[in-house]
Specification:
Number of strands: 5
Bound molecules: FE2/S2 (inorganic) cluster
Length: 178
């Protein structure tokens, strides 16, 4: 039995300690927002946070997360009120959507560690998150917008986004059969 905190809720998972966290999330806990892409820590689709830092859940065994704080895409606000979610909506970032939960979690972690990242810092932080649809320019623009929102520069402009009903479960649902 592995005990850890998942999206601020203490849980226990009865599974093989060598099982990758991604498998436990999707197949044991039925939390399919986190995606399987490569399975070898090369694409970033499976990015979640462990104690606030981005990790590749496809190569993280359950034994390594005992007692840790894990945050997945489902741990972000359901009303899409997080600045990164808002910026993703405002910039219409997703195309097919498959990589996007990993991209968003990487962006959230970046802005928590560096609230005002340079272009170079964004490139460095995001380079491990692959998007086969090539949404990189919109991702970078959204991260800059999110940084500005977080600093309050655009707080009033984004107070009532018309895109709030965008279904963030899209990223959760796309590729569930993968
Ligand atoms: S599925 Fe984990 S990095 Fe690709
Ligand atoms: S939006 Fe399709 S892979 Fe990134």
């Amino acid at each position: 039995m592995i005990s850890f905190t998942l999206n601020n809720n203490p849980i226990e998972v009865d599974a093989d300690p060598s099982m990758p966290l991604l498998w436990a999330l999707r197949d044991v806990l039925d939390m399919t927002g986190t995606k399987y892409g490569c399975g070898i820590a090369q694409c970033g689709a499976c990015t979640v946070h462990m104690d606030g830092s981005p990790i590749r859940s496809c190569v993280m065994p359950l034994s390594a997360i005992s007692g840790k704080k894990i945050t997945t895409i489902e741990g972000l606000p359901k009303d899409a009120s997080h600045p990164v979610q808002q910026a993703w909506l405002d910039n219409n970032v997703p195309q097919c959507g498959y990589c996007q939960s990993g991209q968003i979690m990487a962006a959230v972690a970046l802005l928590e560690s560096n609230p005002n990242p340079s272009d170079e810092a964004i490139d460095t932080a995001m380079q491990g998150n692959i998007c086969r649809c090539g949404t990189y320019p919109r991702i970078k623009a959204a991260i800059k917008d999110a940084a500005a929102m977080q600093s309050g520069k655009q707080a009033s402009q984004h107070a009532e986004s018309p895109a709030q009903h965008f279904d963030f479960n899209l990223a959760k649902n796309v590729g569930d059969n993968a």
